[in-house]
Amino acid sequence: MLEAVIFDLGGVLVDWDPRHLYRDLIADEAALERFVSEVCPMSWHRRLDAGGSFAAAIAERITQFPREAALIRAYDSGWPRMFKGHIAGTVDLLSALDAAGMPLYAITNFPAEKWPEFLAAYPFSQRFRDVIVSGREGIIKPDRRIYDLAVRRFQVRPEHTLFIDDRADNAAAAAALGFQTHHFSEPARLEAALREAGLI
């Protein structure tokens, strides 16, 4: 029997993608893709998720790509525009689980500096009893240490806990530690899984 549910945030409850910002700043699609794959790629962004400062990370990229300085600075100043809002169907499921009394938690790869902004912008985050923010812990998924931390801090039993994430590697890492997992792709599939488990 499931005793708790742990959610990922980006790609599950909110639509986050740097392209949402940069499509307004870079007209050419090929140039946009070059920017997000070479100038400010996800491998660089993960340093922010792991606790690195925006100031240091942006200064480093500007040194490498001085002609792109204004666009690189927008990664910080334009951060809220990387979000296209919440994913309504999943937030509805979160609300249903909360109404049913299910203990809810989250583990998110997220920059520490931007976390207060997220809490203010997305009230549904108040439904979580606790959230592990990678940037505050200096550990990012799928490092097993972040799941071990969740077990200790949330006081959950992995075999009785459902972990939901849109990345297969994150879900696989949780499964390897005994968690029940759902690789998220769309709210309808998650709803079906929750109904099958008798949670809603």
Summary, kept brief:
The chain has 200 residues and is α/β, with parallel strands linked by helices.
Describe this structure in words.
- The protein has eleven helices and seven strands.
- It is α/β, with parallel strands linked by helices and 200 residues long.
- The protein folds into two domains: 4-15 and 83-196, HAD superfamily/HAD-like (Rossmann fold), CATH 3.40.50.1000; 17-82.
- A five-stranded parallel sheet has the order 5-4-1-6-7, with helices on both faces. A two-stranded antiparallel sheet has the order 2-3.
- Helix 4 runs antiparallel to helix 5 (69-77).
- The longest helix has 12 residues, at 88-99.
- The radius of gyration is 18 Å and the shape is globular.
In CATH, the topology of the largest domain is named: Rossmann fold
Radius of gyration: 18 Å
First-to-last CA distance: 13 Å
Number of domains: 2
Number of helical segments with 4 or more residues: 11
- Highest-level CATH class of the largest domain: Alpha Beta
- Strand arrangement in the largest pleated sheet: 5-4-1-6-7
- What share of the residues does DSSP label as strand, in percent? 5-15%
Shape: globular
Main sheet record = 5 strands, parallel
Question: Which superfamily, in CATH terms, is the homologous superfamily of the largest domain?
Answer: HAD superfamily/HAD-like
Mean of pLDDT: 98
Oligomer description:
single chain
CATH architectural group of the largest domain: 3-Layer(aba) Sandwich
Helix content: 40-55%
Structural class of the helix and strand makeup? alpha/beta
Element pattern in H and E: EEHHHHHEHEHEHHEHEH
Indicate the low-confidence ranges by residue numbers: none
* Number of strand elements: 7
